[in-house]
């Protein structure tokens, strides 16, 4: 006998049909994208698309009289099939170049391509980041560095290097440069208040009564 359908196996060893109420209560977690597809929403209309390009030198992104930014806009529209006029690109300058990990990774890349020693280039980037106000920094360069030899005896060129830059941003109450909330181990030292020194000397007697001011004596008259 062939039995079809969901079944459970109790301790007695006999197959029983799975209760429908319990099957309905089993919740399945799906993502929003799959939920929209399951509901029948396969397509969404895009009215406007805004992209901000953060760069240390915005003039290079804009180009002469805005020519390069228009070329980039046309390339994005053609690549993703957007209608003309629905995509806008803006170039914004990075507020603090020393606190941007992407900008410092690019700076380190150009230094290494220029032939600068790896250790010297990394220390230069690290010093610039810490002088910009960062709380911490980590620079990792992986690959066949200068001074290292390949496994085989054939002399190889330097090859591909991997660059990683991690920056710990400082605490900023405004939230522009770093996080708004300070770290739990942050210790703030409050400056003591200035003591106001008395202008006239004051004497005090411990354990005794304060001295009463002397009463003026009458002057005898002849």
Automatic annotation (TrEMBL):
Instruction: Indicate the segments forming the Small ribosomal subunit protein uS3 C-terminal domain, all copies.
Output: 109-154
* Catalytic reactions of this protein: 2'-deoxyribonucleotide-(2'-deoxyribose 5'-phosphate)-2'-deoxyribonucleotide-DNA = a 3'-end 2'-deoxyribonucleotide-(2,3-dehydro-2,3-deoxyribose 5'-phosphate)-DNA + a 5'-end 5'-phospho-2'-deoxyribonucleoside-DNA + H(+)
Q: What is its main location?
A: cytoplasm
Limits of the KH type-2 domain: 47-96
Q: Supply one GO molecular-function term.
A: class I DNA-(apurinic or apyrimidinic site) endonuclease activity
Tell whether Nucleotide-binding is among the UniProt keywords. Answer: no
Q: Which GO terms describe its biological process?
A: positive regulation of apoptotic signaling pathway; translation
Annotated spans, Disordered: 192-222
* Compartments in which it is found: Cytoplasm, Cytoskeleton, Spindle; Mitochondrion inner membrane
Per the record, a Pfam family?
A: KH_2
Q: What is its EC number?
A: 4.2.99.18
List the GO terms this entry assigns under cellular component, sorted alphabetically: cytosolic small ribosomal subunit; mitochondrial inner membrane; nucleus; spindle
Q: Which InterPro entries match?
A: KH_dom-like_a/b, KH_dom_type_2, KH_sf_prok-type, Ribosomal_S3_C_sf, Ribosomal_uS3, Ribosomal_uS3_C
Enumerate the Gene3D superfamilies for this protein.
Answer: 3.30.300.20, Ribosomal protein S3, C-terminal domain
UniProt membrane topology term: Peripheral membrane protein
**Keyword Cell division applies:** yes
Q: Composition bias, kind Pro residues: at what positions?
A: 213-222
Keyword terms, alphabetized? Cell cycle, Cell division, Mitosis, Ribonucleoprotein, Ribosomal protein, RNA-binding
* Family recorded in the similarity comment: Belongs to the universal ribosomal protein uS3 family.
Q: What is this protein called?
A: DNA-(apurinic or apyrimidinic site) lyase
């Amino acid at each position: 006998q062939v039995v079809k359908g969901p079944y459970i196996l109790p301790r007695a060893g006999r197959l029983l049909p799975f209760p429908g109420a319990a099957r309905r209560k089993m919740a399945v977690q799906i993502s929003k994208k799959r939920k929209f597809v399951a509901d029948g929403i396969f397509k969404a209309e895009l009215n406007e698309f805004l992209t901000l390009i953060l760069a240390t030198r915005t003039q290079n992104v804009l180009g002469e009289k805005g020519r390069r930014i228009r070329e980039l806009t046309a390339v994005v529209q053609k690549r993703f099939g957007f209608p003309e006029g629905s995509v806008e690109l803006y170039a914004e300058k990075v507020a603090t170049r020393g606190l941007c990990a992407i900008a410092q990774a690019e700076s380190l890349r150009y230094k290494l391509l220029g032939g600068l020693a790896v250790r010297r280039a990394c220390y230069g980037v690290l010093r610039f980041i810490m002088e910009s106000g960062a709380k911490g920094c980590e620079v990792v360069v992986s690959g066949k560095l200068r001074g290292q030899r390949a496994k085989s005896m054939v002399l190889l060129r330097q090859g591909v290097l991997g660059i990683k830059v991690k920056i710990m941003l400082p605490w900023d109450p405004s939230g522009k440069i770093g996080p708004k909330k300070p770290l739990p181990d942050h210790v703030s030292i409050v400056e003591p208040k200035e003591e106001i020194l008395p202008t006239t000397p004051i004497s005090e007697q411990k354990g005794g009564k304060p001295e009463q001011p002397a009463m003026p004596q009458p002057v005898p008259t002849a």
